Automatic annotation (TrEMBL):
It comes from the Eukaryota. The lineage of its organism: Eukaryota, Fungi, Dikarya, Ascomycota, Pezizomycotina. This is F-box domain-containing protein. Residues 71-126 form the F-box domain. It comes from Exserohilum turcicum (strain 28A).
Amino acid sequence: MGADEEPTRDEAGAVKFGPKTLKETLKELDAINKSIIKLDEENDPFDGLRKTLFRFLMIHEYSVDEPLDNTVKLPAVPTELISEIGVHLSSRDLQTLRYTSKRFRYGVKTIFGKELVNAQTVFPTYVSVASFLALLRCESFFPGMVDTVTLVGEAPRIHEHGSDWAWERLEDSERAVVTPGDRMLQRGINAAHAAWCSVNDDFCYSGGYRILLTMMLSRLPNLKTIKIRKLRAGEHVPDVDGMDALPDLSFYRPKLPVNDIFYGDWQYDTVHKRVTVYTDEYGEEIVEAGAGPQASFIDDVVAAMGNARTSAVLESIV
């Protein structure tokens, strides 16, 4: 969306964020980052996602108990004491305390909020980053509670030498005896994964991650540390299709090192917003004529930090 283009608006004149392709959505979000589209508190592109994913957080809380019936008599515990108790509880016990009464829920509201939003791990998919942005919209104090966030620097991608080659390499290292059933499973997993990657490509290989990360960091005023890491052995990006079939492989084991088959860093052209440098089937690097500067995960993170003007410190986790 260019500076002279008018965004779609509803009957009330508010910017309308209806069903769109990922590419169209990213264009609008980029326009917001660049202040081409102005937002107010009641007009945010992540409100729809907030209402869908976090409806359980929207239960109205009261500062005064409302007994369920005449036989229920809760002790007159000061709200401040309830809050202090909440500080010393485990996550599980804190959840249990919230269900005691509406006032208890109110008393640990801030503590539970920090437990919910701080030190979250964000994966390089639109759904992961957008869901975190939607969560931040649930309470006005949520953004200020975040002092640490972890970014995973490997996204779903098709292996540069092909999925079959990557599987064979894994099988050799595992000394696996592969069955015909395994081959059938692998084909199904590869197909589901490839279809998922084709949807996410617009996010990682056209600058979408940088756009959304800029927006995320700009909404975290008290952020102090940005941790970056790779996927751990056996860890998967949430909701990627095909991964639930892996345990059916005859040679499957916990933490089977399949990460290199399905995930990796990305590289794209920051001018053309697509891949212009790649490796061919012979292992040779091919650079298209007129290729612009290239960017990877760390380049996107550093650029987003600059765009958001965050003072947070970058920390790498091995």
